[in-house]
Design goal:
It is built from eight helices and seven strands. By secondary structure, it is an alpha/beta fold. A seven-stranded mixed β-sheet has the order 2-1-5-4-3-6-7. Helix 1 (15-45) runs antiparallel to helix 2 and helix 1 (15-45) runs antiparallel to helix 3 (65-73). It starts with 14 loop residues before the first helix and ends with a helix.
């Protein structure tokens, strides 16, 4: 399926486009819930203590097809969605790294300690197709710009840290990710859709936000340190 062209963050779709997008969301909401439920059932078919196999990932992706349809129909609306925190100081937090760089060493993320660096927070889940689609761009951006801290925030409360670590690796990410198992970060950062990406500037303020799958061009335009 060809994705519609994404408008720039300054471009606001007309009211009728917003109305169509909202109607589509309402019509497909039940399908999304059914797909997520099917994905959970398939994931639970594997023993919880075992890392998920590639076959399981493929099955989950198929079960979440309805979620992909929602994202394709609502890309115009998502592209202009922002965060109420833009322009405000980012909430400070400390959290252990469960996957990617620093996980094996038992490192922790202390957001306040990253003042002076641009930080990209990516709220994601393993069952979310647009989240998975964003990871290659985030990984490439992180490697090309080591002066920027890219940090994943997994929001799957029902999953163990080991599952998140394995999912992160399976999806090809080496930048660190934390696990928001209790949902506090998701609530504090007012994240209501996945993926949500927040760019925090060198002064610790949220400077930009993006809802939906992100590409390298957006990251280069909005997340660089200069």
């Amino acid at each position: 399926m060809t994705q519609p062209e994404t408008p720039s963050p300054e471009t606001t779709p007309p009211d009728d486009a917003r109305a169509r997008a909202r109607d589509t969301v309402e019509q497909l909401a039940d399908a999304v819930e059914d797909a997520k439920a099917a994905g959970r059932e398939m994931r639970e078919a594997a023993r919880p203590e075992e890392p998920p196999s590639r076959a399981i990932w493929h099955a989950v992706g198929a079960a979440a097809l309805a979620f992909t349809l929602v994202m394709s129909f609502t890309s115009d609306l998502c592209a202009v969605s922002s965060s109420p925190l833009v322009g405000h100081e980012a909430l400070s937090f400390t959290s252990p790294i469960v996957g990617g760089e620093g996980a094996a060493e038992g490192d922790r993320v202390v957001l306040d300690a990253l003042r002076g660096r641009v930080v990209v927070l990516d709220f994601w889940a393993s069952w979310c197709p647009p989240c998975r689609a964003s990871i290659p761009a985030l990984e490439a951006f992180a490697r090309a710009h080591p002066e920027v801290t890219v940090l994943g925030v997994n929001v799957e409360s029902e999953r163990r840290d080991e599952f998140v670590r394995t999912a992160h690796e399976e999806l090809g990410a080496s930048y660190p990710t934390v696990h928001d198992a209790d949902g506090r970060l998701q609530a504090s950062y007012e994240v209501s859709a996945l993926p949500t990406l927040l760019v925090i500037d060198v002064d610790g303020r949220v400077r930009d936000a993006h809802v939906g799958a992100v590409d390298r061009a957006w990251l280069e335009a909005h997340a660089r340190s200069n």
